[in-house]
């Protein structure tokens, strides 16, 4: 069955992702608190502002590792194909949204929305590929 990782991969993902999610939530609120109270500038401000989005990149990497954690080459090919389509979909949405935003037709979007959009495209790609190759 396509897109069904092994039990070991699921356990490994949970032991990595759950602590990371807790850290991400703490970072999000901590960075907002620091900017609301201290107003950091310069390199410190930039470094703090980059922490929440960088944690999303790490979580995205864990998701890709989880999807590729299988010994069956066909299963991994399905997942890699789906990840490629999801990445393309996310890039397309980002470029269109940016183009609309440049001319004032779209509002700014929080960086944290990238991961849900990616996962949404990943689900759609997985379903489409499953139907295509059955």
Write up what this structure looks like.
With 134 residues, the protein is mainly alpha-helical. It has one domain (7-133). The protein contains four helices and no strands. Helix 1 (7-37) packs antiparallel against helix 2 (42-67) and helix 3 (73-102) crosses helix 4 (114-133). It is flat, with a radius of gyration of 18 Å. The termini are close together.
Order of helices and strands: HHHH
Strand content range = under 5%
Stretches where pLDDT is under 50 for at least 5 consecutive residues are none
Summing up helix and strand content along with how strands pair, one would put the structural category as mainly alpha
Distance between the first and last residues' Cα: 10 Å
Main sheet summary? none
Number of strands: 0
Transmembrane segments: 17-35, 41-63, 83-103, 109-129
Keywords: Membrane, Transmembrane, Transmembrane helix
């Amino acid at each position: 069955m396509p897109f069904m990782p092994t039990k070991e991969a699921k356990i490994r993902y949970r032991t990595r992702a759950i602590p990371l999610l807790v850290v991400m939530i703490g970072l999000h609120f901590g960075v907002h608190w620091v900017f609301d109270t201290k107003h950091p500038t310069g390199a410190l401000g930039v470094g703090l502002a980059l922490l929440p989005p960088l944690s999303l990149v790490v979580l995205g990497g864990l998701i890709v590792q989880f999807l590729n954690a299988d010994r069956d080459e066909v299963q991994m090919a399905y997942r890699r194909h789906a990840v490629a389509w999801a990445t393309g979909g996310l890039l397309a949405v980002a470029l269109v949204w940016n183009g609309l935003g440049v001319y004032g037709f779209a509002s700014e979007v929080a960086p944290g929305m990238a991961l849900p959009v990616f996962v949404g495209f990943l689900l759609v790609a997985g379903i489409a590929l499953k139907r295509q190759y059955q």
